[in-house]
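Step 1: inspect the first sequence and its tokens.
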Amino acid sequence: MAADTATPRAQRPATGGGALRARLLSWDVAVVLVTLLVILWAAATVESFASGQNAVFLTLDLTPLLLIALPMTLIIVTGEIDLSVASTVGLSGAVMGWLWNQGLTIETIIPLCIVLGALLGAVNGVFVTVFGLPSLAVTIGTLTLFRGLATVVLGDQAVVDWPYTYTSWVTGTIGGTSIPNVTIPLVVAVLGFGVVLHATPVGRSLFVMGAGEEAARFGGTRVRMVKFWLYVVCGAVSALVGVYWTLRYSSARGNNAAGLELAVVASVLLGGVSIFGGRGTLWGVVAGALLLVSLQNALRLEDVSDDALQVVTGLLLIVSVLLPNVATAVRGAWSRHRRSPAPT
């Protein structure tokens, strides 16, 4: 008993109330609270924000951002990144429009576009895992390449004559409510990726990879293979978003979703995922994406220009990188201060 009493309190493991307090002070919980405050502020001060029609628009805007943010989260947790996702969306939509002009049915086109996205993701995966090139440099290159190919496929034309059955379903709601049809597959995707990341050995290995690849290899993880398939999945999901984007706006263009990659990365980092890998939660990412979309939606209702919205996205991206690292440094300094012996 005497030995336990003599142990400095700061050196004891956090249990009970201490663990709960640490959890409540975590970055992802803070983002959830900020998101709720922004939504309450917008609902109280911005005209039409709380309307059912705007709730539909907000969900439709959230869907492509969050869908791509899900596999992006897994990639960034491993310490990598994919900046080509928006260009994959654009190329998928362009190919979709070209195939439609060739007379293929939409039931054939959609799976072909998803396969195309998987192949584009595989290109990124090969360069990163086989050739060992930095993912930042690789995906900046393929960002430009894929967007250029989209322009080659369709030029500056737009394909707009899409089947009403599909476009109306994408923009429609469930039973006349304010809940869009796309909400159900979106929730299923969030739950699926959440289970994989937080409740399976694969997810745990991703965090280990982000903390140190050597430790992951020592533990039996096939690091290159896992990263390769993460890029394939990210490409396939991005292509699916390209299909969604085309049907939602009834327009296939090579410049669809231009700039979306920055919003995706901002959402992931804003949700508490470390840009250096090894740390983060999917639930924080969901809150980060909702915060970004809610803020942009409220500002649009206030007639703020798209250029200003880009500034907001950039500022949130900077904040999402800077503040978590500052908070970690402050907590570390405070912890060392508490462990230091009191002067005698």
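Step 2: inspect the second sequence and its tokens, then contrast the two.
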Amino acid sequence: MKEADSSSSMPKPEKSSLKTYSNLTKISYSLAPALIIFSHVGCLLLLYTGVTIGSLSWALGLYLARAIATTAIYHRLLTHRSYRAPLFVLWSGCLIAASAAQLGPSCWKAHHLAHHSHTDCEGDPHSPTLGGVGLKSFFWSQFGWVLSPVLFPERLPADVESDPVLRLIDRLHFVPVLILGALSHWYGGLQYLGAFFLATALHYHTTAFVNSLSHLFGDRPFATSDYSRNNAFVALLTLGEGWHNLHHAFPFSCRHGFTLRNGEVRRLPDPTFTFIRFLSWLGLASDLRMPSDSILLAQASPIQAEGMTPNLPEAAIRSS
């Protein structure tokens, strides 16, 4: 396991592919909001079928499997390269993450890199600070941006586009969703199909909470030039992703569960990091990257009282 001892160990911003993508790809991406909306409507099946321990367990299993694939593979491996893993881990993890109806690896990474490059400023695809005020801003960050042209990134990441497997998963991102829904119905009928829809809808919203709630509520132990916050509620629902202020302070870190209290570094629960450590124990992950305690302390924010709002510079420099 590696600890980063200086800011020079942070990865350089990635270059995006200069090629524009086809209208057929745009049509593929446009299916994502339709799948998300349909999953919400599909939850109504449970009012007809009722629920059992079995169907609730199925929903929980689908939620956890796709949540860990999104956090550990899409986010910390594919996007930020917080650790290394064999290609079959990357490919299979991206396939599972794609089944959550939240787009494929190329489009997902493009959105997230844009978020880091322009956090809470013009160009951030889903900042709650840009979509109006009050509930309107929350709705924009939670769902509204998906229904807008922002859904289609200007460029796609070159590393993903150059991998034929990841590119195929990206363009056919809706296929794993349909297969998993069909498998749920085959296994347990309409009740398990309803459980699939429930897990999909819930996972969408908890993931979106990182974009919305974790930029609105929580504490800011680390100095960043944005509104990112550590939010324990979101961290619980997203297997550690809610420690968002740490993530924006140190995007390269494979562990998000850090905070500062009374001048000391404290570790916070981070199930995604635990999963990555398990992969490492199996020999399926290596070069786990984290900031050292001295670097964490050096990044301490002067604003550590929960709920306070930082003064943002007009032209802030952000790391991606």
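Step 3: confirm your contrast with the notes below.
The radius of gyration is 19 Å. Confidence is low (pLDDT under 50) at residues 3-13, 305-320.
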